[in-house]
Amino acid sequence: MVYVLDKDNNPLMPTNRYGRVRHLLKDKKAKVVKRNPYTIKLLHKTTNHKQKVTLGVDSGSKVVGLSATTKKKGWLAPSIQHKIDTHLTVISKICEILPIDKIIVETASFDMQKLKDDKVKGCDYQQGNQLGFWNVREYVCATCCNLKRIA
After folding, report:
1. Is-contact 46 6, C-beta < 8 A?
2. How does DSSP classify residue 131?
3. Rounded mean pLDDT of 104-129?
């Protein structure tokens, strides 16, 4: 993937048309501004045709995972904004090379079995409340039915 900036350093859609990129560079209509990630700057006027790009952020404790997409897969509420603030540098670097319109933050789930029993580990996870049920839906339905019978 080659990232593209317009004449005024605004991000455009990236390209995988490497032959076109080579011709632009050879004809002095573009120049390389970064090698990693490979980014070129156009030296001539161009259209501002851009798709909406959504940046997904998985803010792990040691590694930040980023995924840019033009297809809307769903919306995640920015409920962990304080975590995102610690990764602003990484996000701003992506925004310099891609026309980001929206940022989605993945919220992490937590270990429910560990909350109930802090000694749970390894194979103990296979012996949890859902043992014997085909899937989560069957477990939830059975649990709800049992609660209704008790009430």
Report:
1. yes
2. T
3. 72
